[in-house]
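Hello Y.,

Per our agreement to keep a running log of every chain we model this quarter, I'm adding this entry. I've kept the format consistent with earlier entries: sequence first, then predicted structure.
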Amino acid sequence: MDIPVYLIAGFLDAGKTNFINGILKDGFAAEDKTLLICCEEGEEEYDPHGLFNVFTYTVEDQAELTPELFKKLEKQYRPKQVIIEYNGMWMLQTLFNAMPQDWVIYQELLFADANTFLSYNANMRGLVVDKLNTPELVVFNRMPKDMDKLPLHKIVRGVSRRPDIAYDHGGDDVEYDDIEDPLPFDVNA
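Predicted structure for the entry above:
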């Protein structure tokens, strides 16, 4: 039987742990035994009150990501679902190569700090492209209301047309991307 995997990727201080704490608090793991694999330890910590029915395992080094590790975790914890908080400095292909075939990515989200994303893209383009290839949703956290969304939109769309894009202004103020991409041809010609 397939084990659903929810992959939460992003760079340090992008809001991954806060998001996971939020979904756990909302009861995401209330019914099913959940394995939470943490591939980095940032400033935020997991809320112990939200970890009911959740078992955590921390991966310290990318080299630990092997098929043997995942099979060991599956045998030890017998999860019905898995959440992976993935380190933004590690290539996703390493994870994909190590995951057992019956661990299926059900949803992949990418979190990025809107204030640092352009700098990451300018200085670590390969890592940014790696994270933009496969998610269903890209969330730009800490997005100032007056910040120009177009450069962020162009970077995402330059890599993939697949993901939805959300701009999180804080609190419950989330704006979804509605920028129309220009057609590659003149419709009036």
